[in-house]
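for the writeup, i need someone to sanity check this before i put it in the appendix. the sequnce is what the collaborator sent (i think, or maybe the updated version? ugh). structure was predicted straight from it, no edits. if anything looks off just tell me and ill rerun, i have time this weekend
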Amino acid sequence: MAGHSKWANIQHRKGRQDAKRGKLWTKIIREVTVAARAGGPDPDSNPALRLAWDKAMAANMPKDNVQRAITRGAGGADGADYEEVRYEGYGIGGAAVVVDCMTDNRTRTVADVRHAFAKNGGNLGQEGSVAFMFKHCGQFIFAPGTAEDAVMEAALDAGADDVITDDEGVIEVTCAVPDYAAVRDAFEAAKLKPEIEGITMKPLNETDLEGDDAIRMQKLLDALDALDDVSEVYTTAVIDVA
């Protein structure tokens, strides 16, 4: 089915990310702060911070703003005490949903997340209810037509776990989280630019949705993503974008 084309869904996902980019500064600052607190202020030795830094640059955020967030996270300045919290639940058709948040008030955040699920046909689950359906890993996705041999050579030399090319020519590379920076550096050195990259929760199995179910699921995902405390939303749902 054309709408379930992996490449079409990747383009849809990237387009939605680009459309929201101008509204992401607050979320990115939180991500930078928490990453610096957890792994130190050096992006070269802290993959999560480097990813957050790159997101900030892509969103045209002033470097001074990012540096202040790093300093605050590393303990150089006072600020809100943000922490990472994960919520799990089910969407339309039983599709699994993982919601990663950064919050200074868990009571507020869980109430907002629960409301978004309930209002849009989903259900907030217990801790551990769906996380096992995902793999925490680094992910790089390359457009059809990218030189597969070059991608494979750079990826495997840098320690990637897997390189998969589908029938459309989409190349997906996955790696362990600690190896993310090394694999990314290898692609940069080889002048290979992925369409999408990041540390993600990759679904082990997928739930295809179309028609009204696809529309309802997208509304649920949008409602969760619009919450100020939500940093990332992951799902097993594959939404028909035809």
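Helices lie at 6-20, 25-39, 47-58, 63-73, 106-119, 148-157, 180-189, 211-225. The radius of gyration is 18 Å.
thx in advance!!
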